[in-house]
């Protein structure tokens, strides 16, 4: 069935393939210096996938040299899904986004899981050192066209959804976990989270 679907597509344009490079050039590095948000993808050896958001101050994903990138791990939900998978299978991918820019940066490589004190940069942000750091050895990188973000109007203020149209996080978490809803408001949750960012 997959092959039948793919038969409907034209072969990749040579220009789409030619834009892939094997390092982080000046444009990739400039993009990463502006980038506050990445989506990290990993997988087990048998292919079970994982995807997780990572965020920080612009430039939090630090370029050490054209083939080495450091991605600090901050306080999160403590599931450790990605880190467990990377410990088994070092292949990773990153989708990097900059608010206001519709192009995205895709990076592929292999990651080493390190202690924050073992890397050559200070990983402190908002007064807290990273819990660990992924040292990503870049194998492929390219800028992805703007069409998906343009279609989604992701950065368009007029497309923003009012938070009150969707249930509170505490209600959702309680429903999924089969526990009682604490009744915590979104504002209270944001204040609580702000102490551990």
Give a short overview.
The protein has helices spanning 2-6, 14-18, 26-34, 81-88, 147-152, 169-177, 186-194; strands at 37-43, 49-55, 62-65, 68-73, 91-98, 101-114, 132-144.
Structure description:
This protein has 197 residues and is α+β, with helices and mostly antiparallel strands. The protein folds into two domains: 18-152, Electron Transport, Fmn-binding Protein, Chain A (Pnp Oxidase, Chain A); 161-194, no CATH class. It has seven helices and seven strands. The chain has helices at 2-6, 14-18, 26-34, 81-88, 147-152, 169-177, 186-194, and strands spanning 37-43, 49-55, 62-65, 68-73, 91-98, 101-114, 132-144. It has a seven-stranded antiparallel β-sheet with strand order 2-1-5-6-7-4-3. The protein is globular. It starts with a helix and ends with a helix. The mean pLDDT is 90.
Write the topology of this structure:
Layout: H1 2-6, H2 14-18, H3 26-34, E1 37-43, E2 49-55, E3 62-65, E4 68-73, H4 81-88, E5 91-98, E6 101-114, E7 132-144, H5 147-152, H6 169-177, H7 186-194
Antiparallel strand pairs: 1-2, 1-5, 3-4, 4-7, 5-6, 6-7
In CATH, the homologous superfamily of the largest domain goes by the name Electron Transport, Fmn-binding Protein, Chain A
Count of distinct structural domains: 2
Largest sheet: 7 strands, antiparallel
The average pLDDT value, as a whole number, equals 90
Shape: globular
Structural category is alpha+beta
- What is the CATH class name of the largest domain? Mainly Beta
Query: What proportion of the residues form beta strands (DSSP E)?
Result: 25-35%
**Oligomer description:** single chain
**Radius of gyration computed on alpha carbons:** 19 Å
- Counted by DSSP, the helix tally is 7
Task: Give the SSE string.
Answer: HHHEEEEHEEEHHH
Number of strands: 7
């Amino acid at each position: 069935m997959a092959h039948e679907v793919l038969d409907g597509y034209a072969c990749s344009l040579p220009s789409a393939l030619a834009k892939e490079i094997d390092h982080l050039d000046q444009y990739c590095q400039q993009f990463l210096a502006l980038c506050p948000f990445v989506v990290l993808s990993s997988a087990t050896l048998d292919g079970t996938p994982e995807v997780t958001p990572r965020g920080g101050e612009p430039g939090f994903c630090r370029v050490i040299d054209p083939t080495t990138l450091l991605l600090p791990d901050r306080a999160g939900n403590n599931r450790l899904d990605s880190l467990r998978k990377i410990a088994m299978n070092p292949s990773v991918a990153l989708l990097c986004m900059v608010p206001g820019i519709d192009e995205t940066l895709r990076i592929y490589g292999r990651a080493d899981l390190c202690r924050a004190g073992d890397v050559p940069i200070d990983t402190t942000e908002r007064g807290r050192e990273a819990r660990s750091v992924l040292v990503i050895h870049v194998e492929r990188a390219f800028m992805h066209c703007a069409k998906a973000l343009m279609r989604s109007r992701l950065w368009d203020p007029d497309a923003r959804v009012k938070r009150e149209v969707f249930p509170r996080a505490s209600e959702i978490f309680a429903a999924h976990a089969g526990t009682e809803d604490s009744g915590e408001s979104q504002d209270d949750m944001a204040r609580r989270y702000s102490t551990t960012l």
